Amino acid sequence: MAKSQKRPIESSRRTRPARARAMAKRSSSAVPGELLEGHVTQAAPGGAVHAVLTGGVTIEALCPAHIDARWLAEAARLAPVSAVFLMARPSGRHVLFGLFPTRAQTEVRVDLVIRGREVRVDADQVHLGSRNAQLRLDSEGNVTVRGRDVTSHARRVNRIKGGAIRLN
User: Fold this and answer.
1) What is the span of the domain harbouring residue 36?
2) Is the pLDDT reported for residue 2 higher than 60?
């Protein structure tokens, strides 16, 4: 090779899109398994959340199934939700680990859907209530149903049993 010809300088980093390089740079400062503090700013219906870490770094994190993404999206619209993130191994993805709602989010209400072959609630007391109806189960075995109209319907036999039964 003649002295006048210069060899092309090879880049030490591979040619990756800018976004991938930025994600790798941000992730390299965090150690897998280390908790990172930040705030959730948006939640997507697909289970991803957009957040800003304490140092100002913006990340996209996975939202676990036990966190209601609809509630989180509504709460983040009101104010950023304080959160803790964990970097998963070996993928290096950020995962939402915990939420710490503030007073701004206390009144956030969204529709809740629970799906399952069996839903079990194990508690000392259970209170289901809506605007004009209530069902209470207490720790002593008392069941209270209150409502404007209460309907009991059976396809076969509808039994009423008790030590004493009062009608009206």
Assistant:
1) 32-105
2) no
